[in-house]
What we know:
With 127 residues, the protein is of the alpha+beta class. It has helices at residues 62-68, 88-97, 113-126, and strands spanning 4-6, 9-11, 20-26, 32-38, 40-47, 70-77, 103-110.
Amino acid sequence: MSPWLYQGRPFTEAPADFFGFVYRITLPDGRKYIGKKGFWSKQKTKVVKVSAKGQKVKDLSPEEKAARLKTRRVTKESDWSDYFSSSAEIEALIKAQGKEGFVREILQLVPTRGLLAYYELVWQLKE
């Protein structure tokens, strides 16, 4: 599998100060696909609280459990380094031909989620 290229060099580490990137995948037949991908994803996780009696939440009744469970938003790194595309056509080509011959390029690093869709459109119109 080819690594992501950014400004002609392999790109292997997600920068903390950018939300995502706009990318171009060049198919083996020369066609190009432009898309966007986030470096980070936010997920809700359950935080287990200990009751005043010293019991864990899993030992409590369902009513007590609902009152004690809390959720926390956790930011995790996404699967961006192995990602190819959400396009069904590209996924079918990868299944048929393998991942060799595809060139994955990062066109622009984007600092916020809101700007990601904007810059994806800008690059699609440029190309």
